Amino acid sequence: MDPLRSYLGRLLLEDVTPVVMVLTTPLAEAACRKSGLSFVDMLSPFSLFKKIDVPVRTASDQPYRLQQFKIRMVYASDVRKQDCEVADARIKLVVSEANEKALPDLLSDPPQLKDVLNKPEAELCPLWIKKFNRELIRTLSFSDHETFDHPVACLLVVSSKDKEPISKFADLFNANQLPPLLNEGIMDPQILKHYLVLHEQQDGPQEIAVNILAEMRTTLGLNDCKLLSINSSTQADGSDADNSWSTYKAHGLHNHEGTCFLNMDDLNEIKDFMQDFASNHIIPYMEQKIRVLNQQVATTRKGFRNQIKNLWWRKRDDVPEAANGPMYTFTSIESQIRVLSDYAFMLRDYELALSNYRLLSTDYKLDKAWKRFAGVQEMSGLCYFMLDQSRKDAEYCMENAFTTYLRIGSSGQRNATRCGLWWAEMLKTRGQHREASTVYFRISNEEPSLHSAVLLEQAACCYLLSSPRMLRKYGFHLILAGNSYYLSDQVYINSSTAVTF
Question: Which Pfam families does UniProt cross-reference here (predicted)?
Answer without folding.
Answer: TRAPPC-Trs85 (PF12739)
